[in-house]
Amino acid sequence: MNKTLLEVKDLTKYYPIRGGLFQRNKQYVKAVDGVTFSIREGETFGLVGESGCGKSTTGRSILRLIEPTSGKVYFDGREITKLNHQELRNIRKDMQIIFQDPYASLNPRMTIGKMMEEPMIVHGISDKSLRRQKVREMLEVVGLNAEHGDRYPHEFSGGQRQRVGIARALMHQPKLIVADEPVSALDVSVQSQVLNLLQDLQETFRLTYLFISHDLSVVRYICDRIGVMYLGRMVELGERDALYDRPLHPYTQALLSAAPIPDPEALRERIVLQGDVPNPANPPVGCAFHPRCPYAVETCRTTRPAFREAESGRFVACHLYETGGEPVA
Amino acid sequence: MQTDRVHANQSVSINSNYQKARSPWMEGWRRLRKQKAALIGGGIVILFVLIGLLAPVLAPYDPTEQNLKINLQPPSSDHWLGTDDAGRDVFSRLLYGARISLTIGFFSVIGSLVIGGLLGLLAGYFGKWIDTLISRLFDMMLAFPSILLAIAIVAILGPGLFNALLAIAIINIPTFGRLIRSRVLSVKQEEYIMAARAQGMTQWRLIFRHVLPNSWVPLIVQGTLGIGTAVLDAAALGFLGLGAQPPDAEWGKMLSDAKGYITNAPWLMLCPGIAIMLSVLGFNMFGDGLRDALDPKER
């Protein structure tokens, strides 16, 4: 297979909650708590989980848009987490991000042409007509008209704005794009257009995606490999088909059983989880999922399961698989 | 999701009849035009600005020329608004007064806007000790009643037109500074700022091309309103004899000179009073309209 483009090792991001006398830090919200995975060149890696599980924080920490608390990120052989300000600025050409909300991620006081020109200005393309030319080209590439560069974001629809966001991310032909829920804010008909656009662009520009989403059908459609997160931790990782056909972790099983099947006759067992997602400031001891897990055993309450390879290319953090067999229950 | 694959490039149809781009400013102008009060205010402001600019042309007499033979004359066809105790033409003095008041108002606001805006921008963007330092400075300045602070500053620098302008500029710094600081605090959390950061912007480009343009609209509104306040402050300093010095025609000074003649020559007091009131009213109405036009939670 292709070489590894991005490697994330034991990434954590803790947010302090200040409180008490003299504002001493008393607690931390563990938004991302020891996440490890790697992405191969040219693939689309999906990161799924419910809201608040740390998907977006993971994506942003990888790009150091949020400073991670600890852990290492290697991109194309370089350790991102060690770069200084200037080096980081330079490497941003190669790693870009597409945001969820196309209404919030475009500067409302700049024409989209100016906005798309900026990355070229800051990375030293001083020829103005060349920049203009590239903007026009890129607008066409993402399916807008070259003339649209003179317009302001509020003159576009959500789907069009998202295309602008994609075009902006593509200006330097990056190697990696973190797509942070790129279609979640769009309605379904536009979703498929934008997803197809992303796939076309992947072929054309040989892009690698880290695709963050809570929408299981979208992830299944676009991703090659998938990581499932729960409460700041990665609980399962595997090839798409293997993961969808035979989820290992009880949380993944429940999650997949909740995704609608477009067939009214279809019968299946819906696993309904009890309780709510625990407070990430005070996660359960042991496996974070144990209070809601139908198969929880004594070890789950005391020891945090390691994230280990259960089968070839298949990782899971669950005590039930530590012997390498089927769930005990 | 796995339906027929719509090809991206043929799927977009944007209304092809291309219209001219509407910038946020033009949108604001469109809304401003709909507001009567703002237009009246704007009219008054323009009127006073024209008066100030054209004072030498419009004034029938030299504003400082004394003629004691005709002092304290009531309004007549010769002297439209009468004459003062030194026989100077009140109408001419009023016109020249507009010049002084507007100069002080305009330039003091520019001064406090630039300095306050810059300090507030730095405080809001960089936070931490820079914010603490600047914010405490603002707090200290706001702890004094502003006119008292202005008087103190003029007392130190010495009375005069320029020093009054400087004093008024200084006392208004925290107003603008705090306004933009709070705005920057919220703007820097916006996703488009993070997006710009993801592009690899330099710090300064981020501040001046992305944060500032999205933060300064309230400053423009506050600036317009601030000119009105500054005109009032200038009149107050003039009234106390700390602003423009005689024989310059200044509204506040004219008011204080008229104190002794309230009963036998009321026009001396009424004319500059009304001029002050009208100009402040004009700036306030225009500023309020601007706020409604530029500030609302647009889009």
Could you explain how this protein is built, in words?
The complex is a heterodimer of chains A (329) and B (299). Chain A is α/β, with parallel strands linked by helices. Chain A is 30% helix and 24% strand. Chain A has a single domain (4-94, 172-321), classed as 3-Layer(aba) Sandwich (Rossmann fold). Chain A is built from 10 helices and 12 strands. In chain A, the strands form 2 sheets. An 8-stranded mixed beta sheet of chain A has the order 6-7-8-3-9-10-12-11, sandwiched between helices. Chain A has a 4-stranded antiparallel beta sheet with strand order 2-1-4-5. In chain A, a hairpin with a 2-residue loop joins strand 11 and strand 12 (314-316). The model of chain A has no long low-confidence stretch (mean pLDDT 86). Chain B has a single domain (34-56, 90-294), classed as MetI-like (MetI-like fold, Orthogonal Bundle), CATH 1.10.3720.10. Chain B contains 11 helices and no strands. Chain B has helices at residues 24-33, 36-58, 90-126, 128-143, 146-157, 161-187, 191-198, 203-211, 217-239, 251-258, 267-294. The longest helix of chain B has 37 residues, at 90-126. At the A-B interface, helix 2, helix 3, helix 5, helix 6 and helix 7 of A face helix 7 and helix 8 of B.
